[in-house]
């Protein structure tokens, strides 16, 4: 396998699904967006600045030496200079803005391990061949720690490796570290708090769930808590100071994601990928998780991202008119638009009647008078939010009026009501004047609701001095 995920602090926002836990505070969801230029699995992978590089791999027929760069700002893929060596099941690490590619194989069957090391400079778009590894291998794992690159484990078709070689990119030289406790290939590794964690993989013809931690200060390996699921050909990243292990293979492709907390030395379930897959690349950008390529039911070109949903809009209101309903709601922070959904049944199912609205008001026109319509609104950022509160309204021919009530203390209360509502008020007033009914009348306010679900004015009969009605046609 090997795709290298280099975790670098990215100072940018990703595209419509490239901005995972952004400032939105809703829950997170997986979504699919732009595709790789070519279906590819078990490629080498690295991130430098605001670019993502996919190097080599296997397209289901051929081993590749192609290099593709993804610009996360422009949302475009660009083909770059081919690598000198066609290979898959290699791994990478990044030092000083350059990508180092280690080992792998140029064959599909039989797989012959490589000790080749090559360096790619994204600025000059050039490749350089470097001093080879001492041990030829594929399905190894490489990480950068303390300005050195550790190439760990792997296989050669006959044996599983426990050897750890250390590459010094400043001097183009190799040295060795203590061997892993468990020889293995097709595992993954990450660096967290100055330690190297290696987990999963394949050893002695079986899939393993063990994890080991390397301390460079003591040059020793320690066994840590095991994964819940044995797996190889998976992907591991650092996310919110925990280790996430995604997907992989243990006889079948996996969707499950596990999260490791180093403080408690324990694993918990983190949910699932959108599809079961292995041999894919993963990056964390702006605290968002992006996966691309790999192998599911076939070789993949899809790109998925785990992104934050925006909050649902609050305080949706609806006012009916002649063949129309006017909706208003509160703005959602960082939303780039809103969708309006309508149904003739409370609770839906809803039909989307407006998309990507820039404002927080919408007039739904050409409706049938006398029919009650139910509405919800969603916010859009990288993905769509959950529903707002549901509101309903019934369009009609009713004119409207401004009802102005002057209280005995001189305070004026003004309400914009339908004539049906005005007549209901007049009926109450007449009945109350005859000594019938409640001593107060409730009027629901439809504007300036603020953060409340509703606001109700209670008009006390014997506190009123007089009122006036100003009728108008509501179009």
From TrEMBL:
<protein>
    <submittedName>
        <fullName>Kelch repeat-containing protein</fullName>
    </submittedName>
</protein>
<dbReference type="Pfam" id="PF01344">
    <property type="entry name" value="Kelch_1"/>
</dbReference>
<dbReference type="InterPro" id="IPR006652">
    <property type="entry name" value="Kelch_1"/>
</dbReference>
<keyword id="KW-0732">Signal</keyword>
<dbReference type="InterPro" id="IPR011043">
    <property type="entry name" value="Gal_Oxase/kelch_b-propeller"/>
</dbReference>
<dbReference type="Pfam" id="PF24681">
    <property type="entry name" value="Kelch_KLHDC2_KLHL20_DRC7"/>
</dbReference>
<feature type="domain" description="Fibronectin type-III">
    <location>
        <begin position="310"/>
        <end position="398"/>
    </location>
</feature>
<dbReference type="InterPro" id="IPR036116">
    <property type="entry name" value="FN3_sf"/>
</dbReference>
<dbReference type="InterPro" id="IPR013783">
    <property type="entry name" value="Ig-like_fold"/>
</dbReference>
<feature type="signal peptide">
    <location>
        <begin position="1"/>
        <end position="24"/>
    </location>
</feature>
<dbReference type="InterPro" id="IPR015915">
    <property type="entry name" value="Kelch-typ_b-propeller"/>
</dbReference>
<dbReference type="InterPro" id="IPR003961">
    <property type="entry name" value="FN3_dom"/>
</dbReference>
């Amino acid at each position: 396998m090997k795709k290298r995920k280099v975790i670098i602090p990215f100072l940018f926002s990703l595209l419509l699904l490239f901005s995972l836990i952004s400032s939105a505070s809703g829950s997170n969801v997986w979504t699919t967006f732009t595709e790789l230029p070519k279906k590819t699995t078990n490629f080498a992978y690295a991130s430098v600045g605001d670019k993502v590089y996919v190097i080599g791999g296997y397209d289901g027929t051929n081993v590749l030496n192609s290099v593709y760069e993804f610009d996360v700002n422009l949302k475009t893929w660009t083909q770059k200079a081919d690598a000198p060596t066609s290979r898959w099941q290699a791994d990478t690490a990044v030092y000083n803005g350059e990508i180092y590619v280690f080992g792998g194989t140029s064959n599909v069957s039989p797989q012959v391990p490589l000790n080749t090391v090559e360096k790619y400079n994204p600025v000059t778009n050039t490749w350089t061949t470097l001093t080879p590894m001492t041990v030829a291998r594929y399905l190894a794992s490489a990480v950068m720690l303390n300005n050195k690159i550790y190439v760990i484990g792997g296989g050669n078709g006959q044996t599983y490796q426990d050897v750890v070689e250390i590459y010094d990119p400043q001097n183009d030289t190799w040295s060795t570290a203590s061997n892993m406790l468990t020889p293995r290939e097709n595992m993954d590794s990450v660096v967290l708090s100055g330690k190297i964690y290696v987990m999963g993989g394949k050893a002695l013809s079986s899939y393993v769930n063990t994890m080991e931690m390397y301390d460079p200060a003591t040059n020793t390996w320690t066994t840590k808590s095991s994964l819940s699921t044995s797996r190889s050909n998976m992907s591991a990243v650092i996310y919110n100071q925990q280790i996430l292990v995604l997907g992989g293979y243990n006889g079948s492709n996996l969707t499950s994601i596990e999260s490791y907390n180093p403080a408690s030395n324990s694993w918990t379930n983190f949910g699932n990928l959108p599809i079961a897959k292995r041999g894919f690349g993963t990056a964390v950008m702006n605290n968002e998780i992006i996966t691309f390529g790999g192998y599911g039911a076939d070789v993949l070109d899809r790109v998925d991202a785990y992104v934050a949903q925006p909050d649902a809009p609050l305080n949706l209101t609806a006012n009916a008119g002649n063949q129309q309903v006017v909706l208003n709601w509160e703005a959602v922070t960082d939303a780039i638009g809103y969708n309006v959904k309508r149904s003739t049944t409370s609770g839906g199912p809803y039909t989307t009647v407006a998309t990507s609205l820039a404002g927080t008001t919408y007039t739904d026109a050409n409706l049938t008078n006398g029919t009650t319509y139910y509405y919800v609104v969603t916010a859009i950022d990288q993905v769509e939010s959950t529903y707002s509160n549901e509101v309903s309204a019934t369009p009609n021919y009713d004119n409207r009026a401004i009802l102005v009530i002057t209280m005995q203390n001189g305070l004026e209360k003004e309400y914009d009501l339908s004539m049906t509502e005005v007549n209901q008020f007049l009926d109450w007033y007449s009945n109350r004047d005859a000594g019938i009914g409640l001593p107060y009348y409730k009027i629901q306010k439809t504007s300036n609701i603020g953060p409340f679900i509703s606001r109700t004015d209670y008009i006390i009969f014997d506190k009123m001095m007089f009122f006036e009605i100003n009728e108008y046609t509501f179009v």
